[in-house]
Amino acid sequence: MSDRASLASRQLPVMTLSNGAATSLTAPPKPLPSTLSAAERAQARFGVTGNAIITGGAGTLALSAARALFEHGLQGIAIFDLQSTLDTSSTAIDALKADFPAANIITLTVDVTDAVAVDQAVEDCTSKLSSINTLLCFAGIVGCVHAMDMTPEQWRKTLDVNTTGSFFCAQAVAKRMAAQGTGGSIMLTASISGHRVNYPQPQVSYNVSKAAIVAMKNSLAAEWSGHGIRVNCISPGYMDTVLNEGPGLEQARNTWASRCPMGRMGAIGELDGAIVLLCSRAGSYMTGADIVIDGGSIVF
């Protein structure tokens, strides 16, 4: 059969959406018990249950998110990162374990660009944590290189880590969630860089990689809805972390702040509220959403 004839006779795979019935995994959550006090209802509304995997989990923003999720009821977490980053953040990880002694906190050395390694790590976590209910994808890199000077290796590396790595992790976790029959929440990390061109630094590969995340969560939210898996993303603006510090970045930091209506970068912890929302009962009707958290930078 010729290639043209083969195309004409092919059958397209068809995604299955949820019907939202009471017996489906996308049914509305049961009403909170009327016997709860106002404070208990508030707590239950943003309650987080089960276990999570967090990639790039030894980074400052990821560890802040992990702490917030534990405060809202998360039971266990698997932190995926490179060994060098796990070593650097060992004190912060130990503090997390000390503050939540009842929680099951494990660390794994994982290269998110290695699909086989990712799948094995997720399988290991499924057995150690008994179930996976939440995935947070924080793993990412950025490179500021003029487009005309960018090498093929620089281009591919950024997309491989930021976009393909996020897909590998989401895919591996979604398979386990589907097998569990419990549904779940997957949060990808996009960026305002996926919506607007950064200034003054050139970073086309990063911008493209994050725009792809915004598109990816739409497709995955649709495809996996029948399994009760919600897929959303956040788009942070410039965050005031060690990655954006140093005298060499002072001019850029001033530019970023001057182009932001709130006049500053984001502080550690200012992503946590949106993350808890997406991972909790409060976000039960949210999928395919992108929450921009940038002090208003992309309004211009």
TrEMBL record:
One Gene Ontology term of the molecular function aspect: oxidoreductase activity, acting on NAD(P)H, oxygen as acceptor
Annotated keywords: NADP, Oxidoreductase
GO aspect biological process, one term: carbohydrate metabolic process
Class in the EC hierarchy, top level: oxidoreductase
Keyword Methyltransferase: no
Record Pfam families: adh_short_C2
Keyword NADP: yes
Highest taxon in the source lineage: Eukaryota
InterPro entries tied to this protein: NAD(P)-bd_dom_sf (IPR036291), Sc_DH/Rdtase_CS (IPR020904), SDR_fam (IPR002347)
Entry EC no(s): 1.1.1.250
Pathway(s) annotated for this protein in UniProt: Carbohydrate metabolism; D-arabinitol metabolism
Family: Belongs to the short-chain dehydrogenases/reductases (SDR) family.
Protein name per the record: D-arabinitol 2-dehydrogenase [ribulose-forming]
Lineage of producing organism: Eukaryota, Fungi, Dikarya, Ascomycota, Pezizomycotina
